Amino acid sequence: MKKLLAAATLTLSLSASGLAFAEPLKIGMITTLSGGGAGLGIDTRDGFMLAIKNSGNKDITVVTEDDAQKPELAVQIADKMIQSDQVDILTGIVWSNLLMAVAPSAVAQGKFYVSTNAAPAALAGANCNKLYFNAAYQNDNLHEAMGEYANKGYKKMFILAPNYPAGKDSLTGFKRYYKGELAAEVYTQVGQTDYAAEIAQMRASGADGIFVFLPGGMGIAFMKQFAQSGVKIPVMGPGFSFSQDVLPAIGDAALGAKASGQWAPDFDNEASKKFLADFQKEYNRLPSIYAVQAYDAAQLILSAAAKADVTDADAFRAELLKADIQSPRGNFKFNTNQHPIQDIYLTEVVKQDGVLTNKTVEKIFTDHKDAYAKDCKI
Amino acid sequence: MTVALALEQLLNGLQLGVMLFLMAAGLTLIFGVMGLINLAHGSLYMVGAFACAAVAAWTGSFWIGLIASLVAAAAAGAIVELVVIRRLYDRDHLDQVLATFALILMFSEGTRWLFGSFPLYLDIPPLLQGAVTLPGGTQYPVYRLAIIAAGAIVAIGLYMLISKTRLGMRIRAGESDREMIGALGVDIRTLYTVVFALGAALAGFAGAMVGALQSVQVGMGEPVLILAFVVIVIGGIGSIKGALLGALLVGVTDTMGRFLLPQIFAFFAPPAQAGMIGGAVASMLIYIVMAVILAVKPRGLFPAAHA
Fold first, then answer.
1. Cβ–Cβ gap B275/A185 under 8 Å
2. Which of A154, A283, B180, B250 has the fewest CB atoms nearer than 10 Å to its CB?
């Protein structure tokens, strides 16, 4: 009943804001639903579909396909969706390397791409595009926030990331704001599962803080092994390292870890409370930041579709740019490069009613913009 | 860099090697006895880890989970052998690779169907929690020491089984001449099922032990499988002794490479680049070692007796 009421309210607010939904809109969602990264893709899909369902909009169809975290498969699916399914908008890709394989060619064929997560620097600066929007962040942002946070109270940081583009962006982002000394800068293999050698180095390095960017299973392995090692240096990372999709698997080893994020389940605004309640009711688990980002991406598309026809690309784009949505994140605007301007917070892993989750500690950045927008000329 | 740190890293390498040995032993045993390339060995490792995590969550005891992992992996192995693998012995290796690759996909999606896409939680048992102080003052996790001990016990157990028991005698006989042992009245089909289940149980045991230290998730077996293949190629395919030494060599080389190479490159390059180059070369190191060994000894360090 509550859900029905909520859906009705949202539908009302949308229809009150303008025209009825006249033109049918077809969205192609390519995301990772199998393999080791499936948890991220499933949260993306579920967050996105929650917003679509809440809107009650029957003119929108979403086609979903699994990319299995493989770039070549993502490209094939995108071609099929554009040519035979005739979608108007593509979305859903989690990984930057897959996005780089799909988004530039999709926008070149005149389709919109609204990213729910992946945000490589290459598409935020000189190669930005009118049809490419990012509803999540720019890849560097959460790492920049941790760099800024580390300036307070940490003098010698040990930083670690996997040796691939997003890993390098991560440490670059961290160093852009961190002013102190580095104990070491270590790159590990992608998919590495044993961190004994790195943990031994951390112990010997004399660092007073550790920053790790290890998404998915890598982070689970690292945190469990770190907790057993007897090393007592505080660990921090970007939100992905301690996101809701991995926390249950890390267990109490994650308690106390500091991270940066644009959203946490304890956010005190109406949109966030409603999102959290709806998501838990629908899927019976806590949402991760991937779910919030996808939820907002869907809200953005819905807000534009309510006022403009997607076949009129300029009008649709203008409506998207207004970002006329109630984001669970609170403040949300688009910058000139069509990436978010938003607040970034410090969070801490806590246990509430037996469930591990993130609690907001303080705001690190207000209206944070990425470093590449100045190179974007659109 | 201190002596204590170097020793700790050596211990880490040893422990990684032991983990790889648990995985490689079953793989090489199956290849040695049946001449079968089993790509689905990583899936049996995953089955062990999931069985342990699920049963440990249900009963609250890691140890019951560990037993469950052995039973589940051995049962999965025996079923797979009876239903699929049995039809592949007379086929060439390409057919075996294709069929066992299909098994990987079926195991992965089956596990996802049963347990969902999110990683499971499996913690180290309270008995083995925490760290102990080693001579020299470094702290070292108890659980990693336990893995080294478990690996040593498995190695000794396998040695005893193969050299001292009737089953071991038949396994050795099966390795050297399978027609002859069949002609002498040994039920070779049952022997194959038993060996396959034994190999699977070893993989499941490794999965459960490692699962407590890493992430129990779908697809966790495949990266380990690649390393296990490197190990048995270096050690000599079909040789348990080769698997043990190959595993220790790979474990120590990999750990020491990750530890030392960035420091060596730091003499020539700024720290950020040294880290990046060192990390990249370290991830190649075991494959370089494998290439060198194969160039000198094309059949590995300890080739099995038969051709």
1. yes
2. B180
